[in-house]
Design the sequence.
């Protein structure tokens, strides 16, 4: 039987091997006018198979602003911040509409085999106008795509 020849329940892959991949995407525009972090609707859940494995978190979206402001970003795992990913994104000295594609990546060592939900959050650090995710470069009423990919990496 071919299945019994390729089945290996105790197989240990070398360190750095990809164990599983989870992907999710959204076209829902999210906005904020304040400096507190809010969810961008970019999120996915993964359940690691070993406490020694790492999770590579990657997210991409189009961000925009309609005032002289700048945005900050972070990932969270089950509601806990994994630290700042960047600030000053989208800063310009004028108040006109601007949008750009942004990608973020981080390695996490969660030491867990429980379900882990990762989210991309953002804040309007400049506290002026409105900051957006999942927008199109042409304006704040056009939708763009937000995506997150989680990869479990053997430790």
Sequence:
């Amino acid at each position: 039987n071919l299945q019994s020849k390729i089945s290996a329940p105790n197989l240990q892959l070398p360190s750095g091997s990809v164990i599983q991949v989870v992907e999710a995407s959204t076209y829902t525009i999210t906005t904020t006018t304040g400096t507190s972090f809010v969810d961008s609707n970019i999120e996915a859940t993964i359940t690691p198979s070993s406490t020694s494995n790492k999770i590579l978190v990657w997210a991409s979206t189009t961000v925009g602003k309609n005032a002289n402001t700048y945005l900050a970003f972070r990932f969270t795992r089950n509601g806990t911040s994994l630290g700042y990913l960047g600030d000053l994104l989208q800063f310009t000295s004028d108040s006109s509409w601007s949008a750009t594609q942004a990608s973020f990546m981080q390695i996490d060592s969660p030491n867990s085999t429980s379900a882990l939900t990762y989210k991309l959050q953002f804040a309007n650090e400049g506290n002026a106008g409105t900051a957006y995710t999942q927008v199109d470069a042409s304006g704040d009423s056009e939708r763009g795509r937000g995506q997150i990919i989680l990869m479990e990496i053997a430790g």
